[in-house]
Amino acid sequence: MDWTIIFLSLFAVANSISIGRIDNCSQIADMSVLVFNITQNECMCRMVHSNGSKFALNYFSRNRTCQLFESSVTWITLQFDVNSIFAFLNQSAISIRINQRSIRHKKNDIMDEQHLFYTELNHTLLFYLIVTTTTMTTSPSSASSSTTTATAGFVYSTFRNQVTYKVSDTLYAVAGTDVTGDNKSDIIAVYDPNKVGILVNRGDGIFLNQTVCSVANNSMALAVFDVDDDNRPDIIVTNHVIDKVNIMFNSENGTFRGPVLYSVGRSPRALSVADVNDDKKPDIVTANYYGNSISVLINIGNGTFSNHTIYQVGYNPYSVVIFDMNNDNRFDIVVANSGSSTVGILFNNGNSTFGVHNSYPVGGFPYSVAVGDVDNDNRPDIVVANYISNTLSVLLNKGDGSFMSQITYSVGTGPYSVVVFDMNNDNRLDIIVANSGADNVSILLNRNNGTAFNQTTYPVGNDPRSVAVAYIDNDCHPDVIIANYGSGSVSILLQNEN
Ligand SMILES: *[C@@H]1O[C@H](CO)[C@@H](O)[C@H](O)[C@H]1NC(C)=O
Ligand SMILES: *[C@@H]1O[C@H](CO)[C@@H](O)[C@H](O)[C@H]1NC(C)=O
Ligand SMILES: *[C@@H]1O[C@H](CO)[C@@H](O)[C@H](O)[C@H]1NC(C)=O
Ligand SMILES: *[C@@H]1O[C@H](CO)[C@@H](O)[C@H](O)[C@H]1NC(C)=O
Ligand SMILES: *[C@@H]1O[C@H](CO)[C@@H](O)[C@H](O)[C@H]1NC(C)=O
Ligand SMILES: *[C@@H]1O[C@H](CO)[C@@H](O)[C@H](O)[C@H]1NC(C)=O
Ligand SMILES: *[C@@H]1O[C@H](CO)[C@@H](O)[C@H](O)[C@H]1NC(C)=O
Ligand SMILES: *[C@@H]1O[C@H](CO)[C@@H](O)[C@H](O)[C@H]1NC(C)=O
Ligand SMILES: *[C@@H]1O[C@H](CO)[C@@H](O)[C@H](O)[C@H]1NC(C)=O
Ligand SMILES: *[C@@H]1O[C@H](CO)[C@@H](O)[C@H](O)[C@H]1NC(C)=O
Ligand SMILES: *[C@@H]1O[C@H](CO)[C@@H](O)[C@H](O)[C@H]1NC(C)=O
Ligand SMILES: CC(=O)N[C@H]1CO[C@H](CO)[C@@H](O)[C@@H]1O
Q: Secretion signal: which residues (predicted)?
């Protein structure tokens, strides 16, 4: 790719930003898009795939906020603080100067030394920048196709053949997250016997094998999330034989301490992590297969958790997601009840408790549930993989957190795990499902508003049971990773550049 990105990477204590009027600087950036809760890579990709109309971004890793700027302006004034990444696209000349009102100037030594300065105000580093930009006009060959990709139409995307990594005899679950702190997605896997491992992304397409921790046998599900607020993602797994949650804390560079165990209900089969009581500390919810229940563990600080609270749901819950389903700014719980063939929702009461379990019929043996706005009406919808029916159910949100009857789509045999993600950068959520009985993965590209999909299947290993999306090769095209239970391997499907 030929696009030019200049990074000014800044790291320090605070993380606030305001874009707004600064004294005597009248022109303020036309900040055309503000997107919350996305990764730095997703932010980059939004800019790169914006058909050339966006020229700069400012990304805040701590609160996962992405700011995108329109290229109609030739200069912008920013007040921004550290812990953000500032990047330009297709600019031939950029000059940055600090607002004269800054108290103390000091050279930044990370990148672009001559242009960037900062001032120190009681431990908060604030930048006042004036950025003058010049759109690159020379060298037509550098007008990269990636920047001109239309967002209006459906974007077809394809994936390369799988690359596999054998890790064990049997493999239950995978996640793709950077745990080593080098900004490259690593692969975290739970396998038997009794291990949680990471495949460390070396950056050149090669993954290195590294065992992290021993856990009890039959640890089946995992989540990777910073639960002790040290900006390093921790690993949480559920052991469905000993009825525990195990937390492994990321110490440094992907080395882990623990596990620390917490009791939950019977046979925790799945988990999800999010701040359910709005105290800025992520909590844990497990789906307890034999308990016909979910357990809620409240984070009481530094990654220590309260005793669990149990809520009854349907029979044999197999998958759980935490999401605000009714737009009241509180996280609700969505659970796939495999034994009842329903999907259930527990709304957050707002006082650290959850209300009764409302359920909706889906297909046979729903093994996996995902949530996302597939019809682009700004309301989260529910997508379920029905193991026995070989279908996906999509339940569209009516707007108040109640749902329409399922719409079903046929997929492969034994759909076991589903995720929703915008794979082709067209601002529509696509659906990826691992078909355990067919040894393949179906990628359903959303053609309009969640009512028609282009389905393509890609072969993977034996008995795929877990699927995740990650930016593996850092090319702005999200990739798919799969845990093959039967082969004990991880498959990676890299997305082709269009
Ligand atoms: C992230 O931080 C910026 C600067 O403080 C703020 O403007 C923005 O609202 C924050 N985003 C969220 C989701 O809190
Ligand atoms: C802004 O500019 C005006 C006139 O140019 C000047 O009088 C004023 O002191 C300036 N304000 C600041 C805060 O620098
Ligand atoms: C942020 O995104 C993560 C991962 O996509 C999700 O689990 C979480 O619920 C989201 N949080 C908010 C506040 O939307
Ligand atoms: C880019 O997309 C925006 C909307 O997303 C549209 O308004 C604009 O006309 C497009 N520009 C080009 C050059 O296609
Ligand atoms: C931080 O510094 C500014 C300017 O020096 C001052 O006005 C403010 O009161 C200080 N804030 C704190 C919390 O010390
Ligand atoms: C990872 O380690 C396992 C067990 O030590 C070994 O069998 C496997 O071949 C290794 N995989 C890779 C990709 O190095
Ligand atoms: C972590 O990585 C840094 C930089 O590569 C290195 O200096 C440090 O020793 C590493 N720490 C551990 C615990 O491996
Ligand atoms: C959290 O950790 C910090 C630093 O290690 C410590 O000062 C603080 O007391 C801990 N808080 C709790 C609630 O454990
Ligand atoms: C959890 O429950 C045990 C007894 O079952 C009790 O001893 C302990 O204090 C409780 N812990 C918390 C954090 O409430
Ligand atoms: C929490 O709110 C619900 C619904 O408003 C109420 O029924 C319940 O008693 C409350 N629980 C506590 C502990 O306040
Ligand atoms: C979705 O698209 C279909 C076909 O284009 C249309 O009939 C339907 O009204 C659309 N639904 C929404 C919610 O936009
Ligand atoms: C690009 C592409 O493959 N588009 C296909 C999507 O699916 C519809 C319906 O199956 C086909 O008509 C398109 O050709």
A: 1-16
